[in-house]
Amino acid sequence: MNFLAFAFVGLLLIDTSAINPAAFVGTYRGSLWSGDGDSPSITTLKIGADLVLSGEYSFIEQTGQTTSGSLDACQIEMRVLICQWHDRYGTGVLKMEFDPSLCTFQGQWTTANLVSTGWSYWNGSKGCTPVANAGGSLLQRS
Fold this sequence. Notes:
By secondary structure, the protein is mainly β. It has helices at 2-17, 114-117; strands at 26-34, 37-47, 53-60, 66-77, 80-87, 90-98, 104-111, 120-125.
């Protein structure tokens, strides 16, 4: 009986970590922290022929100006997607933790110089019904 319980838990762990990259694809509307405040944002994730995730984003700054950028080098760790962002301000890391249905993400971003800037939020939803994350956050706060 103990063996069956162990095997079942093992299957759950394998199943949870084997998310198809295509499941993240979509356009997520939300907000991020930029400069002095909350900025409306659009984050689009796509998958290439090589099955690697990448994307684009734009946000409206407090001045009303729109800034656009790209996401690349994306890696999947369970329901956490970690990408490099690039725009006119520089480059850095974006970590997005998705709900179990992959409808929404709660993210954090930082510049390439992690020590001096800390982390800021970056969130989005693609409009489907999210599933609650009863297990707590998968992101480790730095």
